[in-house]
Amino acid sequence: MSRRRVVITGIGVVAPIGNDLATFWNGILEGRNGVGPITHFDATDFRTRFAMEVKDFDPSSRIDRKTARLLDRFAQFALYSSGEALEDSGLDPTSQPDRYGVITGSGIGGIQEMEDQHTLLKDRGPDRVSPFFIPKMITNAAAGQIAIAHGFKGVNYSTVSACASSQHSLGVALDTIRAGRCDAILTGGSEAAITPLSIAGFCALKAMSTRNDEFETAMRPFQASRDGFVMGEGGAMFMFEELEHAKKRGARIYCEVLGFGATDDAYHITAPDPEAKMAREAMRLALVDAERDTSEVNYINAHGTSTPLNDVMEQSAVRQLLGATSDSVMMSSTKSQVGHLLGASGAVELAATAIGIREGVVPATINQVDPDPECSLDSVANEPREAQIEVALSNSFGFGGHDACLCVGRFRD
Q1: What distance in Å separates the CA atoms of residue 185 and residue 73, rounded to the nearest whole number?
Q2: pTM metric for this prediction
Q3: Under a CB-based contact definition with an 8 Å cutoff, are residues 392 and 297 in contact?
Q4: Mean pLDDT, the chain, as a whole number?
Q5: SS3 of 104, please?
Q6: DSSP letters of 269-320?
């Protein structure tokens, strides 16, 4: 019996370079980034005072105002982009609601709500904490609210694995459809962690760039002068659908979801293992699951965080995996344009990869100014490249040593 195949039939995006799929993709093509001074709060006293915020976000165009007030910003991003993905897919949510599920990922969840309610507790006492605090703050609020909005009654939960969270949600969605437990799943991730406590925490870790006077080019993966990542926010959701189900209703297909691999470094809570063995293994397992050979991979959407340790480790993992063919593989970091969206990274980066497969365009790594000799793979420097992506890997690595890789490719019937 042949294995059930899974394809992407709908995409929705909220990102620092665009609050819908078309605007986001135009930003990718134009090589724009969404960086600017932090406006969500007064960052005057912070080591890092800039980020890639979502601009002019109005949830009311897809979420009724009453519901929007009951959602933390991260859940608004998820619910909003799920509506676009559902609309883009053309799937009728009422046709088989018990066969349709929702799996989302977020590394931090409702941290803004946590901070707001903690301030109320300190300043005004326990009786002033909102009864909506818990259902707004919990990470699975995104998945639950999406199910309520669209009537999806199948499998429903959220994954939490730091910056690999949405990559894990995508991989689990693939496995769930293959196993026959669902025919379609809205899956992806969201994050809204540009808050005082979150930014202060990452500043304390010295993980973020401090180029406050030249923030426009601060997010520079693979460059010798990189000094940390730029925080981003947003989210992306996808309609993952079993192939025959999609074909039966005449759905448009972006690409095929081929395989998934996941491992753990078991090395350090924040630092990647410099030997890169388990990062390599996650990619290898994704290809094994996809039933594809390393020689077929011609694009990798890198985790590419612009941090001294990650970029070298990831390039080492790719060289270990691909060997002599490494130099012919394109490997770009979408984070250079949208920032590091933490748990939402894998989802937003898959959006760029999936559209790139359909359109024959490889996203660029912008801000390539002084290449690090230890990061010598083809980074698709500064401008997107017209090229047919046949088989792509999308990497996400998270605090805790989590390594996750999704394999996608051009759909062939």
Answers
A1: 22
A2: 0.97
A3: yes
A4: 97
A5: strand
A6: SSSPPTT-HHHHHHHHHHHHHHT--GGGEEEEE----S-HHHHHHHHHHHHH
Contact of 377 with 56, CB cutoff 8 Å: no
The token pair at 116 is: 């707001």
Q: Tell me how far apart the terminal alpha carbons of the chain are, to the nearest angstrom.
A: 17
- Distance between CA atoms of residues 393 and 176, nearest Å: 20
What CA–CA distances, in Å, run from 72 to 69, 114, 201, 212?
Answer: 8, 9, 20, 28
Q: In this structure, are residues 45 and 34 in contact, taking their beta carbons and an 8 Å threshold?
A: no
User: Which DSSP state fits 106?
Assistant: -
Residue 178, classified by CB atoms within 10 Å of its CB into exposed (0-12), middle (13-18) or buried (19+), is middle
What whole-number distance in Å separates Cα of residue 220 and Cα of residue 228? 8
Amino acid letter for position 284:
R
Place of tokens 């903690």: 118
pLDDT at 1 over 90: no
Report, as an integer, the average pLDDT of 338-355. Answer: 98
pLDDT at 289 over 90: yes
Q: How far is CA 202 from the centre of its chain?
A: 19
* Residues tagged active-site: 163, 303, 340
Q: Which residue has the tokens 């012919």?
A: 328
Number of Cβ atoms within 10 Å of the Cβ of 80: 28
Average pLDDT over every residue of 281-297: 98
pLDDT of residue 194: 98
295 CB neighbour count, 10 Å cutoff: 11
103, burial (CB in 10 Å: exposed 0-12, middle 13-18, buried 19+): buried
